[in-house]
Amino acid sequence: MSGWRWPAFLVVAACFVAQATSVWLDLGPRPGSTVAISPLARQGQALFRNHGCQSCHALYGMGGFLGPDLTNAARRVPPGRYAQLLQEGAGPMPAYRLSADERAALWAYLQAVDATGQGTPVAPPGDAGPVFATAVQRWRIHGGELPDDAAAGARVVATGPCGACHRSFAVDPLMRAPDLSLALAHLDERQVRHVLADGRGTMPPMALDARQTGQVLAFLRWLAANRDELAPQRPATPTTLPWFAYPATNDRDNPVSESRQ
Ligand code: HEC
Ligand code: HEC
After folding, report:
1. Which pLDDT score, from 0 to 100, does residue 251 have?
2. Cβ–Cβ < 8 Å for 126, 232
3. C-beta separation of 248 from 232 below 8 A
């Protein structure tokens, strides 16, 4: 019996040392981890909730949409404009009767949130703007020809609602809408017509007439045929995401692990 005690003790002690070391070194992903905020920012957080700021403003994409997402407001909004906004309101934003101390606490909270990283996924540079419009433009600048019906389809896609969900040559991790340049790789034209007319999954039916549908199809055909040349060489995935969407890793692209140091 007593022969087991020492080995058991050593195993427990080794586990303890390993765990303590990994906590001390802050190794590995920590899903669900939190960031400490100052007492002033904590006060601001309570004010933010009690005054219903979240009913119009999102933080990390969650909250209301009447006003802009405030995750990175502290780096974007000059302090003078911020004070004026709260005191006087702006458009649908009401004026708030807050003391200077309360405004400072709210600002400290917004700064603490901002310091956790980029709150909204950002399209890779070069592919910003309406879906595929940049690729079409680049193609034309380099002297490429675009058949008329494909050009008309590009306009339908760039000016229609498609870009709210679909990205150029990428799958948006939030919307999960497929990369349209790959659609004809696994769907035939009849199936694409069907998706456009009736929707599929979370995609609603698109109000396109027969001519526009034909043009979109011509554009998708052109995209599929020239994808290798059109698509950016880098993988077109956003590199900055809300902290809750990705566990902190030692990945250099992850702004969260940097800002925690
Ligand atoms: C009824 C909706 C509503 C509420 C509630 C509201 N806001 Fe706003 N807020 C807006 C709108 C709309 C704008 C954009 C105003 C503009 O730029 O003309 C805005 C703008 C802002 C901006 C500037 C953001 C930027 O990027 O320019 C900040 C900061 C801000 N609000 C903070 C707050 C805070 C803090 C609260 C709570 C005390 C709050 N808001 C409550 C609607 C609201
Ligand atoms: C509200 C978001 C939303 C909008 C707006 C939207 N889509 Fe979609 N689309 C999706 C989603 C999500 C899917 C995947 C549906 C599924 O999983 O079944 C999809 C699928 C597709 C597919 C099938 C792709 C494949 O590889 O299977 C095509 C083609 C398509 N969309 C074209 C369009 C076009 C063209 C427009 C604009 C006229 C558009 N979509 C607008 C969300 C959207």
Report:
1. 42
2. yes
3. no
Q: Is 63 a pocket residue for ligand 1 (Cβ < 6 Å)?
A: no
d(CA 70, CA 254): 20
Q: What confidence tens digit (pLDDT) does each residue in 120-162 have?
A: 655 444 455 688 988 898 888 888 889 999 999 999 999 888 9
**Residue 61 in tokens:** 């994409």
Indicate whether residue 183 lines ligand 2 (CB < 6 A).
yes
Task: Evaluate: CB of 98 within 6 angstroms of ligand 2.
Answer: no
Q: Report which ligand 2 atom has the smallest distance to the Cα of 220.
A: 29
The full length of the chain comes to 261
Cα(159) to centroid(ligand 2), Å:
15
CB 207 within 8 A of CB 91: no
Tokens encoding 253: 């692209």
Nearest atom within ligand 1 for CA of residue 82? 29
Distance 243 CA to ligand 2 centre (A): 27
| pLDDT tens digits, one per residue of 40-83 | 999 999 999 899 999 999 898 888 888 899 999 999 999 899 99
Q: Are 92 and 56 in contact (CB under 8 A)?
A: yes
The CA-CA-CA angle for residues 45, 75, 106, to 5°, reads 20
- Residue 174: exposure state from Cβ atoms within 10 A (0-12, 13-18, ≥19): middle
Of the bound ligands, which one is closest to the alpha carbon of residue 109?
Answer: 1
Distance between CA 14 and CA 84 in Å, rounded? 58
Dump pLDDT digits (tens) for 208-247: 999 999 999 999 999 999 998 888 765 444 444 445 544 4
Instruction: Note the pLDDT of residue 65.
Output: 86
